[in-house]
Design brief:
The protein is α+β, with helices and mostly antiparallel strands. Helix content is 29%, strand content 29%. Strands 5, 6, 7, 8, 9, 10, 11, 12, 13 and 14 form a 10-stranded mixed β-sheet that branches. Strands 1-3-4 form a 3-stranded antiparallel β-sheet. The chain has a two-stranded antiparallel sheet with strand order 2-15. It is globular, with a radius of gyration of 18 Å.
């Protein structure tokens, strides 16, 4: 892994891991890695997938997970540098509160090619995470021009009065969520249309419900932002998204053989 703070030095993704030789939705994560690398100005080595799984087989890690059935047991940060080096950093997954609380913080400023990618200058997101801990809440939501564009380790989604579920636009700096990509069709099949939108504070305050999505946290209910109650937690949006997520969590693990 590069020690640089140059955004262009690497592309990476945090992937759910079973502790052995399977990753959750590996194909989607690898496709995003390739998209982000191109935006950051380099190409992935042709054999990077095989090299990542080879490194995965060599990791020695505890087999005692800290989370329940609705989250993957472990996570691994997988990435490739612009020099073609592969790196993996495994960690335990963490449990979350029954209903999450959040603060809003200013979003980092990057140019359009860097915004919305997982790149080598991630410190502002880590700082936002630290600010959440310092304020005794679960997560930070990143705000720009009076709109929420991302979460420090998750994508926020709200259920509006019109029955649509809205998430931040990638064009405005949000990451393209792999978790959302996995469950979006299932949510729509269940009667909740999912659309990108400018998530203004006023839209958030009138929301019927909010959730956040992430490869590690899965689906979590968000009930408080900056001390203000948001909608009714753990309602239709949460139940629908969680049902779709649990189906993927049981069926979408992949080994390198599955990608061949």
């Amino acid at each position: 892994m590069s020690d640089d703070s140059d955004p262009h030095c690497e592309a990476w993704s945090t992937v759910a891991w079973d502790g052995k030789n399977h990753l959750l939705a590996a194909d989607l994560h690898f496709d995003r890695l390739e998209r982000h690398a191109i935006r950051l100005g380099f190409n992935m080595p042709e054999d990077y997938r095989e090299r990542i799984f080879k490194e995965l087989d060599m990791i020695e890690f505890s087999e005692t997970p800290l989370v329940g059935h609705h989250q993957p047991p472990y996570l691994v940060k997988v990435g490739v540098t612009k020099k073609g080096e592969v790196f993996l950093i495994p960690r335990f997954n963490q449990p979350w509160s029954h209903i999450l609380s959040a603060i809003t913080v200013s979003a980092p400023k990057w140019n359009d090619k860097i915004r919305g990618t997982k790149h080598g200058d991630w410190q502002p997101y880590l700082d936002a995470r630290d600010m959440a801990l310092e304020n005794k809440v679960d997560i930070s939501l990143l705000v720009e021009n009076d709109s929420i564009i991302d979460g420090d380790r998750c994508m926020p989604i709200l259920l509006d009065l019109d029955g649509f579920a809205y998430h931040p636009r990638v064009e405005e700096g949000a990451l393209d969520s792999i978790t959302l990509e996995q469950i979006k069709q299932g949510m729509e099949d269940a009667g909740i249309p999912v659309r990108p939108a400018r998530m203004t504070i006023s839209l958030v305050l009138r929301a019927k419900e909010m959730i956040v999505l992430g490869s590690g946290m899965g689906v979590q209910s968000l009930g408080i932002i900056d001390g203000r109650k948001i909608g009714e937690p753990r309602g239709k949006l949460y139940e629908t998204a969680m049902s779709c997520w649990l189906e993927k969590l049981s069926s979408s693990w992949q080994s390198i053989e599955d990608l061949s």
